[in-house]
Design goal:
Ybab, Chain: A; rod-shaped; 2 helices; alpha+beta; about 55% helix
């Protein structure tokens, strides 16, 4: 029983380390062939949006808005994939009980 408790504490410690690592990790989502790029933390926080100057036209506003949304979605998917990959490395592929995940 003591070994199980010790393993649970080690897993909890590794999970906290993983959360810290994901906060500092960055992923980049792109849309429109790279005309819009969004940099996001591994936890899903948008850090930066870069927009190609060619899109800065009033008649392109709706396209630009759609590209920002698409780039955010791309970055979010990459952040989630990064988190899943890191989680798998920490847990050895074992399922995590509810409440212990990210």
């Amino acid at each position: 029983m003591f070994d199980i408790m010790k393993q649970a504490q080690q897993l909890q410690s590794r999970m906290q380390d993983l959360q810290t690592e994901l906060e500092s990790a960055e992923v980049e989502g792109r849309a429109g062939g790279g005309l819009v790029a969004v940099t996001m933390s591994g936890k899903g926080e948008v850090k930066k949006v870069a927009i190609d100057p060619s899109l800065m036209k009033e008649e392109e506003r709706e396209v630009l808005e759609d590209l920002v949304v698409a780039a955010c979605a791309d970055a979010k998917a990459k952040a989630e994939a990064l988190a899943a990959e890191k989680m798998k490395a920490v847990t050895g592929g074992l399922p995590i009980p509810p409440g212990l995940g990210l």
